[in-house]
Fold this sequence. Notes:
It contains nine helices and 13 strands. Helix 2 runs antiparallel to helix 3. Strand 10 and strand 11 form a beta hairpin. A four-stranded mixed beta sheet has the order 8-9-13-12. A three-stranded mixed beta sheet has the order 1-7-6. By secondary structure, it is an alpha+beta fold. It has three domains: 88 residues, Orthogonal Bundle (Helix Hairpins), CATH 1.10.287; 93 residues, Sandwich (HSP40/DNAj peptide-binding domain), CATH 2.60.260; 109 residues, Urease metallochaperone UreE, N-terminal domain (HSP40/DNAj peptide-binding domain, Sandwich).
Amino acid sequence: MARRDYYAVLGISRSASSEDIKRAFRGLALKHHPDRNPGDAESERRFRECAEAWECLGDPEQRARYDRLGPLYTPTGRPPSPDELNDIFRDALNGLFRRRRPGGAGEDLRYTLTISLEEASTGVERTLDVPRTVRCKKCDGTGDHAEGRTPCAPCAGTGRSPTRRLLRTDCATCDGRGYVPARKCDRCGGEGRHPLEDKLKVKVPAGVATGQKLKLKLKGHEPAAFAGTTPGPAGDLYVVVQVDDHPLFRRRGADLLCEVPVTFPEVALGADIAVPTLAGNTTIRIPSGTPSGKTFRLPGRGLPTVEGGGKGDLHVRVVVEVPTALNADQRAAVSALGERLGQDAHPARRAWEQTLRSRR
Ligand SMILES: [Zn+2]
Ligand SMILES: [Zn+2]
Protein backbone atom coordinates (compact mmCIF):
# COMPACT_ATOMS: atom_id res chain seq x y z
CA MET A 1 0.00 0.00 0.00
CA ALA A 2 1.35 3.36 -0.96
CA ARG A 3 2.32 5.47 2.00
CA ARG A 4 0.34 8.64 2.26
CA ASP A 5 2.11 11.93 2.58
CA TYR A 6 2.50 12.65 6.31
CA TYR A 7 1.60 16.29 5.88
CA ALA A 8 -1.57 15.33 4.06
CA VAL A 9 -2.40 12.80 6.77
CA LEU A 10 -2.32 15.51 9.41
CA GLY A 11 -3.94 18.03 7.07
CA ILE A 12 -1.17 20.58 7.37
CA SER A 13 1.13 22.40 4.96
CA ARG A 14 4.80 21.62 4.55
CA SER A 15 5.64 24.90 6.23
CA ALA A 16 3.60 24.12 9.35
CA SER A 17 5.22 25.06 12.64
CA SER A 18 5.86 22.41 15.28
CA GLU A 19 2.92 23.88 17.22
CA ASP A 20 0.66 23.39 14.20
CA ILE A 21 1.78 19.79 13.93
CA LYS A 22 1.09 19.10 17.60
CA ARG A 23 -2.33 20.69 17.42
CA ALA A 24 -3.28 18.79 14.27
CA PHE A 25 -2.12 15.47 15.68
CA ARG A 26 -3.83 15.95 18.98
CA GLY A 27 -7.13 16.78 17.35
CA LEU A 28 -7.00 13.79 15.02
CA ALA A 29 -5.76 11.38 17.68
CA LEU A 30 -8.69 12.26 19.92
CA LYS A 31 -11.14 12.02 17.05
CA HIS A 32 -9.99 8.66 15.75
CA HIS A 33 -9.01 6.91 18.94
CA PRO A 34 -10.31 3.30 18.99
CA ASP A 35 -11.94 3.83 22.41
CA ARG A 36 -14.17 6.45 20.87
CA ASN A 37 -14.83 4.40 17.77
CA PRO A 38 -15.09 0.81 18.94
CA GLY A 39 -15.03 -1.73 16.14
CA ASP A 40 -14.46 0.93 13.49
CA ALA A 41 -11.58 -0.36 11.38
CA GLU A 42 -11.33 2.83 9.35
CA SER A 43 -10.92 4.96 12.48
CA GLU A 44 -8.26 2.63 13.76
CA ARG A 45 -6.42 2.79 10.44
CA ARG A 46 -6.61 6.59 10.50
CA PHE A 47 -5.40 6.62 14.09
CA ARG A 48 -2.34 4.51 13.28
CA GLU A 49 -1.66 6.64 10.22
CA CYS A 50 -1.79 9.83 12.30
CA ALA A 51 0.42 8.29 14.96
CA GLU A 52 2.98 7.34 12.34
CA ALA A 53 2.87 10.82 10.80
CA TRP A 54 3.26 12.38 14.21
CA GLU A 55 6.11 10.08 15.09
CA CYS A 56 7.97 11.43 12.09
CA LEU A 57 6.92 15.08 11.87
CA GLY A 58 6.80 15.62 15.64
CA ASP A 59 10.53 15.01 15.82
CA PRO A 60 12.53 17.81 14.15
CA GLU A 61 15.34 15.45 13.11
CA GLN A 62 12.99 12.89 11.59
CA ARG A 63 11.02 15.64 9.92
CA ALA A 64 14.18 17.01 8.28
CA ARG A 65 14.99 13.50 7.02
CA TYR A 66 11.46 13.12 5.68
CA ASP A 67 11.62 16.45 3.89
CA ARG A 68 14.97 15.46 2.35
CA LEU A 69 14.12 11.87 1.37
CA GLY A 70 10.46 12.27 0.46
CA PRO A 71 9.02 8.95 -0.74
CA LEU A 72 12.27 7.16 0.09
CA TYR A 73 11.82 7.88 3.77
CA THR A 74 11.10 4.86 5.91
CA PRO A 75 10.42 5.00 9.58
CA THR A 76 13.09 2.99 11.32
CA GLY A 77 10.74 1.70 13.97
CA ARG A 78 7.94 -0.79 13.94
CA PRO A 79 4.28 0.18 13.76
CA PRO A 80 2.80 1.18 17.11
CA SER A 81 1.52 -1.59 19.34
CA PRO A 82 -1.95 -1.37 20.93
CA ASP A 83 -0.30 -0.53 24.26
CA GLU A 84 1.57 2.35 22.69
CA LEU A 85 -1.61 3.61 21.10
CA ASN A 86 -3.20 3.63 24.51
CA ASP A 87 -0.24 5.53 25.90
CA ILE A 88 -0.74 8.14 23.23
CA PHE A 89 -4.34 8.61 24.08
CA ARG A 90 -3.73 8.82 27.79
CA ASP A 91 -0.99 11.36 27.24
CA ALA A 92 -3.25 13.32 24.95
CA LEU A 93 -5.95 13.45 27.58
CA ASN A 94 -3.51 14.40 30.30
CA GLY A 95 -2.30 17.37 28.37
CA LEU A 96 -0.01 15.79 25.86
CA PHE A 97 2.34 18.63 25.32
CA ARG A 98 2.59 19.94 28.81
CA ARG A 99 5.33 18.17 30.68
CA ARG A 100 4.00 17.70 34.17
CA ARG A 101 7.17 16.26 35.50
CA PRO A 102 9.59 17.45 36.69
CA GLY A 103 8.67 21.03 35.81
CA GLY A 104 4.95 20.57 36.50
CA ALA A 105 2.73 22.27 39.04
CA GLY A 106 2.21 21.02 42.57
CA GLU A 107 -0.93 19.16 43.57
CA ASP A 108 -3.94 20.86 45.10
CA LEU A 109 -4.72 20.20 48.73
CA ARG A 110 -7.98 19.90 50.66
CA TYR A 111 -8.50 20.66 54.31
CA THR A 112 -11.73 20.33 56.26
CA LEU A 113 -12.25 23.07 58.85
CA THR A 114 -14.95 22.57 61.47
CA ILE A 115 -16.36 25.71 63.09
CA SER A 116 -19.25 26.45 65.42
CA LEU A 117 -22.50 28.07 64.32
CA GLU A 118 -21.53 31.15 66.36
CA GLU A 119 -18.25 31.38 64.41
CA ALA A 120 -20.12 30.97 61.14
CA SER A 121 -22.35 33.85 62.22
CA THR A 122 -19.60 36.32 63.07
CA GLY A 123 -16.82 35.05 60.82
CA VAL A 124 -13.58 33.84 62.33
CA GLU A 125 -9.86 33.82 61.72
CA ARG A 126 -8.13 30.52 62.32
CA THR A 127 -4.57 29.25 62.14
CA LEU A 128 -4.52 25.81 60.54
CA ASP A 129 -1.86 23.12 60.87
CA VAL A 130 -1.77 21.97 57.28
CA PRO A 131 0.34 18.95 56.34
CA ARG A 132 1.68 19.93 52.92
CA THR A 133 4.70 19.17 50.79
CA VAL A 134 7.26 21.94 50.36
CA ARG A 135 10.31 22.26 48.16
CA CYS A 136 13.51 21.27 49.95
CA LYS A 137 15.55 24.34 50.80
CA LYS A 138 18.75 22.41 51.34
CA CYS A 139 18.95 21.20 47.73
CA ASP A 140 16.72 23.87 46.15
CA GLY A 141 14.29 21.13 45.17
CA THR A 142 16.80 19.22 43.05
CA GLY A 143 16.97 16.24 45.37
CA ASP A 144 20.74 15.97 45.24
CA HIS A 145 23.97 17.85 45.70
CA ALA A 146 25.30 19.91 42.81
CA GLU A 147 28.83 18.55 42.95
CA GLY A 148 29.52 15.15 41.43
CA ARG A 149 26.59 15.00 38.99
CA THR A 150 27.40 12.96 35.89
CA PRO A 151 25.51 13.19 32.60
CA CYS A 152 23.06 10.33 32.12
CA ALA A 153 24.45 7.90 29.55
CA PRO A 154 21.27 6.22 28.25
CA CYS A 155 19.63 9.52 27.30
CA ALA A 156 22.89 11.38 26.61
CA GLY A 157 21.94 14.06 29.10
CA THR A 158 18.68 15.05 27.41
CA GLY A 159 16.41 13.60 30.08
CA ARG A 160 14.23 12.10 27.35
CA SER A 161 13.55 8.43 26.90
CA PRO A 162 16.29 6.91 24.74
CA THR A 163 14.11 4.11 23.41
CA ARG A 164 12.27 5.09 20.30
CA ARG A 165 8.74 5.80 21.28
CA LEU A 166 5.82 7.47 19.69
CA LEU A 167 6.00 10.19 22.24
CA ARG A 168 9.10 11.15 24.04
CA THR A 169 8.78 10.51 27.73
CA ASP A 170 11.15 11.05 30.60
CA CYS A 171 14.26 8.92 30.70
CA ALA A 172 13.69 6.11 33.17
CA THR A 173 17.32 6.03 34.29
CA CYS A 174 17.54 9.67 35.37
CA ASP A 175 13.80 10.43 35.77
CA GLY A 176 14.06 13.24 33.26
CA ARG A 177 16.92 15.01 35.00
CA GLY A 178 19.47 14.35 32.27
CA TYR A 179 22.10 13.57 34.86
CA VAL A 180 22.74 11.01 37.54
CA PRO A 181 22.93 12.44 41.05
CA ALA A 182 26.13 11.65 42.92
CA ARG A 183 24.55 11.82 46.33
CA LYS A 184 20.93 12.15 47.34
CA CYS A 185 20.00 15.13 49.49
CA ASP A 186 19.85 13.90 53.08
CA ARG A 187 17.09 16.37 53.98
CA CYS A 188 14.53 15.20 51.40
CA GLY A 189 15.92 11.77 50.50
CA GLY A 190 16.25 12.74 46.84
CA GLU A 191 12.60 13.73 46.37
CA GLY A 192 13.37 17.43 46.09
CA ARG A 193 10.56 18.14 48.53
CA HIS A 194 9.37 16.94 51.89
CA PRO A 195 6.28 17.01 54.11
CA LEU A 196 5.85 19.90 56.50
CA GLU A 197 3.19 20.82 59.03
CA ASP A 198 2.61 24.36 57.92
CA LYS A 199 0.80 27.01 59.96
CA LEU A 200 -1.54 28.90 57.67
CA LYS A 201 -3.98 31.66 58.55
CA VAL A 202 -7.43 31.53 57.03
CA LYS A 203 -10.19 34.12 57.29
CA VAL A 204 -13.63 32.54 57.33
CA PRO A 205 -16.27 35.08 56.25
CA ALA A 206 -19.44 35.63 58.27
CA GLY A 207 -22.42 33.67 57.00
CA VAL A 208 -20.40 30.73 55.69
CA ALA A 209 -22.23 27.42 55.32
CA THR A 210 -21.21 23.77 55.35
CA GLY A 211 -19.56 22.69 52.12
CA GLN A 212 -18.30 26.12 51.11
CA LYS A 213 -14.69 26.21 49.94
CA LEU A 214 -12.13 28.88 50.68
CA LYS A 215 -9.24 28.92 48.25
CA LEU A 216 -5.74 29.75 49.45
CA LYS A 217 -3.77 30.28 46.29
CA LEU A 218 -0.42 28.48 46.02
CA LYS A 219 -0.76 26.96 49.49
CA GLY A 220 -1.10 23.38 48.22
CA HIS A 221 1.84 21.07 47.56
CA GLU A 222 4.99 22.51 46.03
CA PRO A 223 6.61 20.60 43.17
CA ALA A 224 10.25 19.58 43.11
CA ALA A 225 12.66 21.41 40.82
CA PHE A 226 15.23 19.21 39.22
CA ALA A 227 18.38 20.98 38.02
CA GLY A 228 17.93 22.75 34.73
CA THR A 229 14.15 22.95 35.02
CA THR A 230 11.99 25.79 36.19
CA PRO A 231 9.82 24.63 39.06
CA GLY A 232 6.11 24.88 38.40
CA PRO A 233 3.76 26.75 40.73
CA ALA A 234 2.51 25.20 43.95
CA GLY A 235 -1.02 23.80 43.99
CA ASP A 236 -3.84 25.58 45.77
CA LEU A 237 -5.25 24.82 49.18
CA TYR A 238 -9.02 24.39 49.41
CA VAL A 239 -10.38 24.81 52.92
CA VAL A 240 -13.77 23.11 53.06
CA VAL A 241 -15.95 24.54 55.82
CA GLN A 242 -18.00 22.27 58.05
CA VAL A 243 -20.38 24.06 60.43
CA ASP A 244 -21.09 22.02 63.56
CA ASP A 245 -24.63 21.17 64.64
CA HIS A 246 -25.95 23.45 67.37
CA PRO A 247 -27.88 22.16 70.42
CA LEU A 248 -30.48 24.97 70.18
CA PHE A 249 -30.70 26.07 66.57
CA ARG A 250 -31.31 24.50 63.23
CA ARG A 251 -30.23 26.43 60.17
CA ARG A 252 -32.15 27.07 56.96
CA GLY A 253 -30.04 29.26 54.71
CA ALA A 254 -29.54 32.51 56.60
CA ASP A 255 -32.53 31.78 58.91
CA LEU A 256 -32.37 30.02 62.24
CA LEU A 257 -35.08 27.83 63.72
CA CYS A 258 -35.55 27.20 67.41
CA GLU A 259 -38.18 25.27 69.33
CA VAL A 260 -39.15 26.49 72.82
CA PRO A 261 -41.18 24.40 75.27
CA VAL A 262 -43.87 26.46 77.01
CA THR A 263 -46.51 25.64 79.61
CA PHE A 264 -50.27 25.61 79.22
CA PRO A 265 -50.78 28.53 81.62
CA GLU A 266 -48.21 30.56 79.64
CA VAL A 267 -49.98 30.14 76.28
CA ALA A 268 -53.43 30.43 77.89
CA LEU A 269 -52.72 33.63 79.80
CA GLY A 270 -49.90 35.13 77.75
CA ALA A 271 -46.36 35.48 79.12
CA ASP A 272 -42.88 36.82 78.60
CA ILE A 273 -40.64 33.89 77.81
CA ALA A 274 -36.86 33.71 77.45
CA VAL A 275 -35.59 32.61 74.04
CA PRO A 276 -32.00 32.12 72.86
CA THR A 277 -30.33 34.02 70.04
CA LEU A 278 -26.79 33.50 68.75
CA ALA A 279 -25.77 36.68 70.58
CA GLY A 280 -27.34 35.68 73.91
CA ASN A 281 -30.79 35.33 75.43
CA THR A 282 -33.67 37.69 74.87
CA THR A 283 -37.36 37.81 75.83
CA ILE A 284 -40.43 37.62 73.66
CA ARG A 285 -44.01 38.27 74.70
CA ILE A 286 -46.53 35.64 73.68
CA PRO A 287 -50.15 36.77 73.75
CA SER A 288 -52.90 34.96 75.65
CA GLY A 289 -54.51 32.22 73.60
CA THR A 290 -51.36 31.37 71.65
CA PRO A 291 -51.84 27.96 69.99
CA SER A 292 -49.23 25.26 70.43
CA GLY A 293 -46.88 25.15 67.46
CA LYS A 294 -47.17 28.86 66.65
CA THR A 295 -44.01 30.41 65.25
CA PHE A 296 -42.77 33.88 66.15
CA ARG A 297 -40.33 35.64 63.85
CA LEU A 298 -37.47 37.71 65.20
CA PRO A 299 -36.25 39.71 62.20
CA GLY A 300 -32.50 40.09 61.71
CA ARG A 301 -31.60 37.59 64.43
CA GLY A 302 -30.44 34.96 61.93
CA LEU A 303 -27.11 34.70 60.12
CA PRO A 304 -25.62 37.26 57.76
CA THR A 305 -25.40 36.29 54.12
CA VAL A 306 -21.88 35.76 52.74
CA GLU A 307 -22.58 38.24 49.98
CA GLY A 308 -23.34 40.81 52.66
CA GLY A 309 -26.45 42.93 52.76
CA GLY A 310 -28.94 41.81 55.34
CA LYS A 311 -29.37 39.06 57.85
CA GLY A 312 -31.73 36.17 58.13
CA ASP A 313 -34.45 35.85 60.76
CA LEU A 314 -34.83 33.75 63.87
CA HIS A 315 -38.01 31.67 63.93
CA VAL A 316 -39.13 30.66 67.42
CA ARG A 317 -41.72 27.90 67.57
CA VAL A 318 -43.54 27.48 70.88
CA VAL A 319 -44.63 23.96 71.76
CA VAL A 320 -46.85 23.32 74.78
CA GLU A 321 -45.42 20.73 77.11
CA VAL A 322 -48.12 18.49 78.55
CA PRO A 323 -47.46 17.60 82.20
CA THR A 324 -46.80 13.94 82.92
CA ALA A 325 -46.57 11.88 86.13
CA LEU A 326 -48.99 14.05 88.09
CA ASN A 327 -49.58 13.34 91.76
CA ALA A 328 -53.09 13.00 93.20
CA ASP A 329 -53.28 16.61 94.23
CA GLN A 330 -52.19 17.85 90.79
CA ARG A 331 -54.60 15.48 89.04
CA ALA A 332 -57.47 16.84 91.07
CA ALA A 333 -56.50 20.39 90.23
CA VAL A 334 -56.29 19.68 86.47
CA SER A 335 -59.59 17.82 86.57
CA ALA A 336 -61.25 20.72 88.36
CA LEU A 337 -59.79 23.11 85.78
CA GLY A 338 -61.21 21.02 82.95
CA GLU A 339 -64.67 21.15 84.44
CA ARG A 340 -64.43 24.86 85.11
CA LEU A 341 -63.37 25.60 81.54
CA GLY A 342 -66.06 23.40 80.03
CA GLN A 343 -67.05 23.35 76.37
CA ASP A 344 -67.20 27.14 75.93
CA ALA A 345 -63.46 27.41 76.36
CA HIS A 346 -62.82 24.80 73.67
CA PRO A 347 -64.82 25.82 70.55
CA ALA A 348 -62.86 23.59 68.21
CA ARG A 349 -63.48 20.57 70.40
CA ARG A 350 -67.20 21.44 70.64
CA ALA A 351 -67.52 21.68 66.85
CA TRP A 352 -65.69 18.39 66.46
CA GLU A 353 -68.05 16.57 68.77
CA GLN A 354 -71.06 17.99 66.95
CA THR A 355 -69.68 16.71 63.67
CA LEU A 356 -69.22 13.22 65.10
CA ARG A 357 -72.77 13.20 66.51
CA SER A 358 -74.26 14.23 63.17
CA ARG A 359 -72.85 11.06 61.54
CA ARG A 360 -75.11 8.75 63.58
ZN1 LIG B 1 18.61 9.86 31.39
ZN1 LIG C 1 16.71 18.15 49.45
